[in-house]
Amino acid sequence: MKKHSLKTFIYYLSFYVLALSSTFAHKNHNSVPQNAPQLKPQEMQLFTINEFYKDKVKPIFQKKCFDCHSQNTQYPWYYKIPGAKQLIDDDLKKAKEHLDFSNDFPFGGHGTPNEDLDAIEDVTKDNSMPPFRYWILRWDSRILYEEKRIILEWVNRSKAALKEKNK
Ligand code: HEC
Q1: Could you list the residue range(s) of the whole structural domain that residue 85 is in?
Q2: What is the residue with the minimal CA distance to atom 13 of ligand 1?
Q3: Ligand 1 atom at shortest distance from the alpha carbon of 134
């Protein structure tokens, strides 16, 4: 009984958050709540978290990770330098084998959503992405402190929601 009412509470809370966010985010006005009420509470939680991803995390990834981990590569000018092309192509191939952010979460690479989250958590915590050799060429690609906080908050919330879903 208690568990049930907690779920109901979470359900309404998520809905409230969604309703509020759609009120304030004018540009997403039509895209958010339409199909929301048919979702189960656990799905609703994931849904809310994906909105968080698209709103807060994806813009960071777009700026700093998409060149290697998505289909939208902006090739640098030195791509044309003999030798560089080969190195960059190798990197891109390897990067996408590990993780492809072209789709929103769950990314649907070879890892499970939880494995992807763990890997993202690791590289974010130890600052190992983007790779060091890339920093030298693109000094503006480092993850800033505030961005790190946002990514890790999203990772934690997603993990909690996935755990809840698999209960
Ligand atoms: C210059 C290309 C490049 C950029 C930019 C880049 N990565 Fe990577 N990433 C790679 C490559 C290459 C690999 C494969 C492993 C390796 O060689 O280190 C990889 C692997 C990973 C992995 C898997 C690690 C593992 O242990 O399986 C994660 C997670 C990751 N990247 C996240 C990110 C995130 C998040 C960003 C943006 C902040 C990012 N990467 C930016 C090239 C890149």
Answers
A1: 40-165
A2: 95
A3: 1
